[in-house]
Amino acid sequence: SSPEGYISSLLGHEGKGSYLSLLKSKGWACELVSGPSQPAANFAFFQLNIELTTEGHSHINEIVELAFQCLHKLRYHNGVQEWFHLENARLLEIKFRFKGKAEPFDYVSAIVANMYRYPLEHALSAQFVRDVWDPKGINELLDELLKVENFRIHVVGQVYKDICDQKEKWYGTSYKEEDISSEFLAKLRRYQYPSQDITLVDDKVMHFPPPNLFIPTDFSIKPWSSQEPPKIKCVLSTPIARLWHKQDITFNRPKVHMSFELMNPLCYSSPINSIMTRLWTYLLEDSLSEFSYDASLIGTEYAINNTIAGCQLSLKGYNDRIHLLTDGVFQKMADYQIPSEEVFLIQKERLSREYKNTTKQEQYLRTIYLSSLITEVSRWHVDCYIPLVATVTFEMMQNFIKQIHQ
Q: How far is it, in rounded angstroms, from Cα 149 to Cα 185?
């Protein structure tokens, strides 16, 4: 029945009206992951991991309280809903039916663990089966998660380095440990009960997501009658575009993989333009996150990356519904405007961290990166980007996007 899976699917949802959507609208967070963690046999933690913005570190208590409000609303206002359980069960069924090859080491490790937890005949499929509807179990778990005695907060960031007063034994990591204030615990404890005196956030947020329109229903595969293997052929040729297609007869899955190379010399003409192109892809992904989240649940995904020639858009997923994602992504790329300077600053901060972290990678990754600079033509070094990111302004980015659209 997986009560923890039901709750994490809602608390970790990234669509419109979700907990993460609310945190993003306040400028407090970029990403969120929710779900159980089992460090040893016979017990587990339920974790809510949030990537905070700089502003978010100043609102830890508000973020925690909003999480408790989410759980309270699921327990006492929305109620458990069977249709959402059945939808999740359908998602897992499709994933198992068309599961691709996994890394042998990871796959064997997972199966061995399943052989310990489940009957042998279910070792391969147990994690993909949700055939029991258990509303009582879901409510019992929500009751446990709402108990303030059962939770702790870990906050990690460079902003706390000056207040750390202890050293971790094995790695020497600096940290500080302190009790949660009794006043804040008393505030959170109210959410444990169906009180009428609690003022929740706007009903427009933290509600049940609508049915997932990206779940495919047609799994038919186009037949191939020729004895000759299919060849790549050009199906469209115009002065500004060419489209190539090759039918798959090897894997026989109702899936498609599309890759679009969008050529624009402006995108890599200088280090600053390369930075803004990368930032543009971040802004696009952020604006599409709520729309594309449901698609990602079924494995229908997209990626936008900047290249030396311009940028590359890749999409993969089920034939039946991938057109919904493709249309939405291209439409957003064609008419995107930055919604606010605050959104721009959040993604700019994220990009700056990415560039700085590149210089701290493991040595073998650094070697691969430096080798690519030697073997490829006209590559800008990340050291060029790090000091320039700070010089990119909101107005510069707006003008750059206008130039791309031309």
A: 9
pLDDT of residue 406: 80
Please name the residue that has the structure tokens 């020497």: 172
Cα 250 to Cα 236: distance, rounded to the nearest angstrom: 24
Show the tokens assigned to 96. 């198992």
CA 377 distance to own-chain centroid:
33
- Average pLDDT estimate for 275-280: 96
Short-list 154, 206, 284, 291, CA closest to 20: 206
pLDDT of 201-233, one tens digit each? 656 567 788 999 999 999 999 888 888 889 999
Closest CA to 327 of 240, 214, 243, 222: 214
How far from the centroid of its chain's Cα atoms is residue 237's Cα? 36
Whether this prediction's pTM lies above 0.85 is answered by yes
Q: Please enumerate in sequence order all residues whose Cβ is within 8 A of that of 93, keeping only pairs 6 or more positions apart, or say none.
A: 128
Burial class (CB in 10 A: 0-12, 13-18, 19+), 312: middle
Query: H or E element: which one contains 367?
Result: helix 363-375
Q: Judge contact between 48 and 29, C-beta under 8 A.
A: no
pLDDT number for residue 102: 87
Quick one: tokens of 186? 């008393």
Which 3 state secondary structure label does DSSP give 33? strand
Which neighbouring-strand residues pair with 316? 257, 301
Q: What mean pLDDT is predicted for residues 259-274?
A: 93
Percentage of the chain surpassing pLDDT 70?
A: 98
Quickly list DSSP for 232-279: -EEEEE-SS-EEEE----SS--SEEEEEEEEE-GGGGSSHHHHHHHHH
271: Cα separation from own chain's centroid: 28
Sign for the CA dihedral angle at 387, 393, 396, 397 comes to positive
Query: How much is the mean pLDDT over the chain?
Result: 91
- If you write DSSP's letter for every residue of 171-235 in order, what string do you get? T--EE---PPPHHHHHHHHGGGS--SS--PSPTTSS-PPPP-TT------------SSPP--EEE
Which pLDDT does position 100 carry in this prediction?
83
Q: What is the pLDDT of residue 201?
A: 63
Across the range 384-406, mean pLDDT stands at 93
